[in-house]
């Protein structure tokens, strides 16, 4: 498996070559911008060859080759998962109230919001249980944020779907949508993203809403293995700031981490997240994601982009001080007020995992089933050479993390939160 990244089936070079071949066949051009001196991130833009029309963009993280390939794949994922790229035969309409009847998934947020108001026919995607037998339907509006905007503006869509998504929109996200060289790769990354986002939702609720004492566990950077310590050091040099890494516990026991940058120029917190059966890979991902967020802000989008996000905390979350605290995400303040345990890397919980994607996926789904939930996936698009885009979700997932995007969301189970 030399040269093949964890959770992948091909080397970066082979994967990029295969994707570029498909983009050429689809009549698409691409342009990649690279940012960073000591550590890198990339932004890819895809355009139509004939018209030059911009179609989609995506960002990549990791070392130079990984960030380049990652940006290409993410841009393609965004292109092929948008509403107009979906096969109409994959979209099913049913009445929202009929969907909720005797459906246990509709007893908590966000699906409980479908019970409000009069029933209306809305679009769904059919999902199949990963390594299981069940099937279910999931609202398109919760997997494709673009759809809600289109439904408001497109008369034809409004005639087919009259549902008011005003409240549900706060929970809409493309989290769980992923691309891979095959279905196994795509589903792995979609499920890991779902666990990562649910872990973040729990972390936000426990730290910023419940104010749990002695809950925070920070990884001691001096105990990191050499490869992670190298990335950690280069990242701190790139951003001229201190970095802190915290555990984000979840009921599946899958390693998930958040890295946080100590800075006071922008109100909104700069952070990165990572999740993997490999604790080492999860920490690296959260560090690379933080670098991606910072470098895109500094070199590509501009710091005015960050300032606008900071302003949104005050406007969109006005009157919701706890939500504002979540969006600001000041981990320094929380460490001082709640206490924080420092943990050595060798004492972090670890899991066995395979480097074969099919076996890795079996290990991941086993953990999900063992903890009473079901992982679901829906195939959105398959290209000629097998490159696959899927959407996944896990029953019981929590979308409170959208508060970091200045959305007035609430934890999935308010009953648990009240406890």
Structure overview:
With 419 residues, the chain is α+β, with helices and mostly antiparallel strands. It has a domain at 88-171. It is built from 14 helices and 14 strands. It has helices at residues 12-25, 64-80, 96-100, 140-143, 145-153, 155-160, 183-209, 226-239, 279-301, 303-316, 321-328, 331-338, 357-370, 414-418; strands at 28-35, 40-48, 54-62, 91-95, 121-129, 135-139, 177-180, 216-219, 243-247, 256-261, 271-275, 340-343, 375-382, 388-394. A hairpin with a 5-residue loop joins strand 13 (375-382) and strand 14 (388-394). Helix 7 packs across helix 11, helix 8 runs parallel beside helix 9 (279-301) and helix 9 crosses helix 10 (303-316). The longest helix has 27 residues, at 183-209. The protein is globular. The relative contact order is 0.15.
Helix/strand layout:
Elements: H1 12-25, E1 28-35, E2 40-48, E3 54-62, H2 64-80, E4 91-95, H3 96-100, E5 121-129, E6 135-139, H4 140-143, H5 145-153, H6 155-160, E7 177-180, H7 183-209, E8 216-219, H8 226-239, E9 243-247, E10 256-261, E11 271-275, H9 279-301, H10 303-316, H11 321-328, H12 331-338, E12 340-343, H13 357-370, E13 375-382, E14 388-394, H14 414-418
Parallel strand pairs: 8-12
Antiparallel strand pairs: 1-2, 2-3, 4-5, 5-6, 5-13, 7-14, 9-10, 10-11, 13-14
């Amino acid at each position: 498996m030399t040269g093949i990244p964890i959770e992948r089936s091909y080397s970066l070079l082979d994967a990029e070559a295969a994707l570029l071949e498909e983009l050429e066949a689809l009549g698409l051009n691409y342009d990649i911008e690279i940012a960073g001196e000591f550590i890198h991130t990339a932004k890819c833009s895809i355009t139509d060859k004939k018209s030059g029309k911009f179609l989609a963009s995506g960002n990549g993280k990791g070392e130079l080759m990984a960030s380049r390939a990652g940006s290409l794949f993410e841009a393609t994922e965004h292109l092929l998962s948008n509403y107009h790229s979906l096969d109409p035969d994959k979209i099913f309409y049913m009445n929202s109230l009929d969907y909720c009847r005797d459906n246990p998934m509709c007893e908590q947020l966000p699906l409980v919001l479908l019970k409000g108001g009069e029933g209306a026919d809305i679009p769904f995607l059919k999902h199949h249980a990963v390594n299981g037998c069940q099937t279910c339907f999931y609202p398109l509006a919760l997997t494709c944020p673009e759809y809600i905007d289109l439904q408001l503006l497109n008369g034809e869509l409004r005639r087919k779907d009259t549902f008011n998504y005003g409240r549900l929109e706060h929970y809409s996200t493309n989290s769980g949508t992923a691309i891979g060289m095959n279905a196994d790769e795509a589903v792995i990354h979609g499920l890991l993203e779902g666990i990562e986002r649910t872990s973040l939702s729990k972390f936000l609720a426990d730290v910023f809403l419940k104010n749990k004492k002695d809950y925070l566990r920070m990884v001691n950077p001096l105990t990191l293995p050499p490869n992670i310590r190298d990335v950690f050091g280069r990242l701190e040099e790139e951003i001229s700031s201190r970095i802190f890494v915290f555990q984000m516990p979840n009921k599946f026991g899958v390693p998930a981490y958040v890295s946080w940058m100590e800075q006071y120029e922008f109100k909104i917190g700069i952070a990165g997240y990572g999740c993997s059966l490999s604790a080492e890979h999860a920490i690296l991902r959260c560090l690379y994601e933080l670098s991606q967020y910072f470098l895109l802000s500094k070199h590509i989008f501009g710091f005015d982009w960050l300032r606008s996000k900071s302003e949104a905390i005050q406007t969109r979350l006005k009157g919701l001080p706890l939500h504002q605290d979540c969006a600001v995400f000041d981990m320094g303040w929380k460490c001082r007020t709640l206490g924080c345990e420092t943990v050595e890397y060798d004492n972090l919980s670890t899991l066995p995992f395979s480097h074969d994607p099919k076996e890795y996926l079996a290990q991941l789904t086993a953990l999900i089933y063992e903890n009473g939930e079901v992982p679901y996936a829906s195939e959105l698009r398959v290209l000629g050479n097998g490159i696959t885009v899927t959407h996944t979700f896990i029953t019981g997932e929590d979308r409170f993390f959208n508060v970091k995007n200045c959305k007035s969301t609430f934890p999935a189970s308010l009953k648990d939160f009240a406890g």
